[in-house]
Amino acid sequence: MSYLVGVDIGGTFTDCVVIDEAGTVTTAKAPSTPDDFARGMIDAIEAASRRLGIAAAALYRDIALLSHGTTVGTNAVVQKRGVKLGLITTRGHNDVIHIMRGSRGLQGRDLRQVVHFPESHKPEPIVPKRLIAGVSERVDCFGAVVVPLNEAEAEAAIRRLVAEGVAAIAICFLWSFLHPEHERQVRDMARRLAPGLFVTCSCDLVPKWGEYERSTAVALNAYIGPLVAGYLANLDRELKSRGYRQPLQITQCGGGTISVEKAMAAPLLTLDSGPAAGVTGSLYLGRAMGHDNIITTDMGGTSFDVGIIAAGKPAFSFTSIVNQYEYFIPKLDIQAIGAGGGSLVKIDEKSRTIRVGPDSAGAVPGPVCYGRGGTVPTVTDADVVLGYIDPDCFAGGAMRLDKARAEAAVGDIALRLGMGLDECAAGIAKIVEFQMADIIRRMTVGRGLDPRDFVLFAFGGAGPVHAGIFARELGVKKIIVPQRETAATWCAFGAAAADVLHIHEAVDIMASPFDGARINGNLERLAQAARAQMAQDRIAPARQRLEFALDMRHKGQINEVEVILDWRRAEGDFEAPLKASFYRCYEQLYGSGASFKGARVEIVTYRVRATAETPRPKLVAAERLSETIPEAAHRAPRAVYWEELGRRVETPIFDGLQLEPGNAVDGPCVVETPDTSVVVRPGQRLKVDAFGNFEVATHPLG
């Protein structure tokens, strides 16, 4: 027997999914261990081995592929615990990363802080000015060397930074993406002068036009590099010592996996990789079910993450923001807000209203009902009060929740606002549900997409609890809770289902009319780089798949639109259909008639996505569907408060693992699995499909 294993580390729990050759899925959770994330990962894998009924050593030995989503880099950035780094740049451009853009770093800030000017300050610098060294060299906008690299200055800069005690050096020269030799000379010099020092170049990481975003990207890569590289190296050794024999794969923000060696060299790719795995799993399941338009929603303990799959393609972005720093990285477009099960509930004393999030109780102390010292109520505490969650069966019965403490904590909020306990708990749930609906609107309606044309995938430990409300608010007709109990560990499933993915980019700004030979030359160079990377990963040519794309814009604009190419070489009359594709993509984003067909068009960035299929989970459809609900699926009813009815009602409770394909239950009811509850609202219906997914129809029953 061989297994596919995916492990995803979240802020509260570490999730593990094990899939055997027959397609049987086994899930397990273990508390995340921020002091040593590897320990939580090992705990989750060994918890899965106990559920399988085999020794952990046997599981490690028989794993065919292990894919891991890590939050070490993300946590280091968010908590500002990266290493001391130095930055070497073109003389005269030392302050680029401090000047930022004209927005003063307000992107990504809470709106209340933006409008309150005293709080709209720039972020704490990743690298202080004293650790930025300017070196004489200059390349012009055509890639020609104007000033040769002053090697003596470069060596002096390296020696000074090393003497200052830096653990990493980032290198970013002006226009280096057109002439990378200067950066690579300094990189080689640094490795010679300071063996073991983490060194990273912008020309290798993000070879794109935009000095500030490129500087930020390479500085962030250096900021987290030693931490992530050290963690992954230790984890790789630990897994091998326990009997794991295959190469370790790491999930990346672009939606696939990369080798552990690549992740150690470019840890920036691991930021936001966990939520990206959720989109990857949804894409895989959606194709099997015939759904091309999917809204993915992942509500865990800390955040609520939203992704979009339209016409069978996940939405991408090529600029990201963390701690107000904007940087280049090709990634799945996932937007997040601080709305999870652990989101803290507080009273705004000025307005006398309830505020939910963005701060979270995290894994420690966690919600009040965990009994680990938490005193501020959370969304999970409200869910326990309302009856959505059975306190005796949380996390598959491995953890008992203290309902009395949850009631006391929520009751304190209710008392201060003059509300009833149930009314207050329902208000907390509604606030967080409407916050989630708002971000989904921005991701769909704000981009020319109608959410009514989509199905909604709800996963994460808290997602299926609240999806019935925010989906109904958006007009979405169907919610899919994927693979029953696997929904609570869906990002880990997505890691196991992910293909190998490498994204290569190059910039060569060209205005129409286009030079086909120049386009072909750029695409071929990227293809060669992609094939070389695949060969380094020991992937045979027959498994390699290349997809080409161009970022285009109207001449004079600064924002581009990605156009996926259905050809590999520009031949014949390629320009007219290429422009037509650009106009279609542009108007999809900005509205019908927004493009100006009389203007010239520019190509800015050339891109290739190189993928290779990995062993995939098998989805086996049931041979027969049954309308008869097994007796074992019925659990004792309990009182649940339904805001739509304005009262508590003795509510049917079902064991989701005992429901059979073809079974249907009408709301109000709660369908429970070991790690989540699917709350079926009044007027909604849940049905188990042939693949074992829960499908919830949100429209009123006729």
Describe this structure as you would to a colleague:
The protein has 702 residues and is an alpha+beta fold. Helix content is 32%, strand content 28%. It contains 18 helices and 33 strands. Strands 13, 14, 15, 18, 21, 22, 29, 32 and 33 form a nine-stranded mixed beta sheet that branches. A six-stranded mixed beta sheet has the order 3-2-1-4-11-12. Strands 6-5-9-10 form a four-stranded parallel beta sheet, sandwiched between helices. Helix 3 packs across helix 9, helix 6 packs across helix 7 and helix 11 crosses helix 16. The longest helix has 31 residues. The model has no long low-confidence stretch (mean pLDDT 91).
Structural class: alpha+beta
- End-to-end span in angstroms? 48 Å
Strand content is: 25-35%
Number of helices: 18
Overall geometry comes to globular
Number of strands: 33
Helix content: 25-40%
**How many strands, what sense, and barrel or not for the largest sheet?**
9 strands, mixed
Mean pLDDT: 91
Uncertain segments are none
Summarize the structure.
By secondary structure, the chain is α+β, with helices and mostly antiparallel strands. It is built from 18 helices and 33 strands.
Helix and strand layout, with pairings?
Blueprint: E1 3-9, E2 13-20, E3 25-31, H1 37-52, H2 56-62, E4 63-69, H3 72-78, E5 85-90, H4 96-99, H5 111-115, E6 132-135, E7 138-139, E8 145-147, H6 151-163, E9 168-172, H7 181-193, E10 198-201, H8 202-205, H9 211-241, E11 248-251, E12 257-259, H10 260-265, H11 273-289, E13 294-299, E14 304-310, E15 313-314, E16 316-322, E17 325-332, E18 334-337, E19 343-348, E20 353-360, H12 379-386, H13 403-417, H14 421-444, E21 455-459, H15 463-474, E22 478-481, H16 490-497, E23 500-511, H17 516-536, E24 544-554, E25 561-564, H18 575-590, E26 601-612, E27 634-642, E28 647-655, E29 664-666, E30 669-673, E31 676-680, E32 685-688, E33 694-697
Parallel strand pairs: 1-4, 4-11, 5-6, 5-9, 9-10, 13-21, 21-22, 28-30
Antiparallel strand pairs: 1-2, 2-3, 7-8, 11-12, 13-14, 14-15, 14-18, 16-17, 19-20, 22-33, 23-26, 24-25, 24-26, 27-28, 29-32, 30-31, 32-33
